[in-house]
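seq as requested:
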Amino acid sequence: MARQDTVAGIYNYPVPLTSYASITETVLLAPFSTGYYPGYPSPSTPLSTSTYPVVLPVGIAPDVAGGEFDGHAFEVKLTGTVTGASTCTFLIKLYQVTNAVLTSGTTSATYATLLTHPPSGTGIRALVGSSAVTLSSTVKTNFSLVAPFIWDSVSGQLNFSNAPVFYEIGATATPTVTNASTSSIGASDLNFLPSFTWGTAFGGSLVLSEFVINRL
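struct tokens:
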């Protein structure tokens, strides 16, 4: 159930692992078939295909981006459960993606930069990388990554308002932090996209209980 201060997000999303592989960083992908998750496909998010996997970011809607977030702190929260095919590591990263990249079309060269390994290109910025989790093939591992940010329309800068926190199976780890964007970005550029990397043994399951943006 969404919090009253949640403005965007998805819940209990079983990540489709069709295009994932061990040691290869892959961003969060939209479903590959109808009926997989409510609301997809949609006019803005078509189904993924093997040729053109479709990324699944969470962004701040235009009707709440102005006064709600201009100079006010917010957080991006990513929680879930994951297993491995056998004992291996699991790494999570969080990116900020500009609106121009997301609206350039699922088959365009610009949009395709989101699917490189790791995601790269103009308008795509790494923000947080978690400490690697050690997975089991039989026991689900709980994880949580919370990254607090602040943005204002005057400077156009996205900055951390506090230290990100990464938690897994009863322990808090210090995530690797990349400086948030110092270039000019607008409210429509406040889009966030996670990526996942399994270790030598590719994972068995990944369910995102929350991938949301909350006001603070």
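The chain has one domain: 6-215.
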